[in-house]
Write a structure and sequence with these properties.
Length: 96
């Protein structure tokens, strides 16, 4: 698998790969990533074609999925290590 290009975006890092008759496209933000794989075809055979594929609708879908992923990530972390309540960090009583 080799990188054939990156597509600029203000909040996402978008990397396009070429591998075995496919174009894997990786979207990354805040430590999370998604990969979408598209088969090469008559209308999809170059980085220029892939750039046309990555339109506003796809970006919107990717960003919505990242929101879902971030919420799941946060829930998992809070289940594993719940945040400490404010003011009760040392287990000692407050002295006034």
């Amino acid at each position: 698998m080799r990188i054939i290009g990156r597509i600029p975006h203000p909040t996402l890092q978008i990397t396009v790969f070429e591998n075995d008759g496919r174009f894997p496209i990786q979207f990354e933000t805040n430590g999370l990533s998604q990969i979408y794989r598209f088969r090469k075809s008559e209308g999809l055979k170059s980085l220029t074609d892939v750039k046309k594929l990555i339109n506003a609708d796809l970006i919107k879908t990717v960003l919505e999925q990242f929101s879902v992923m971030q919420a799941a990530h946060s829930r998992a972390l809070n289940t594993f290590a719940p945040p400490e309540s404010v003011g009760d960090t040392d287990g000692l009583p407050d002295i006034i």
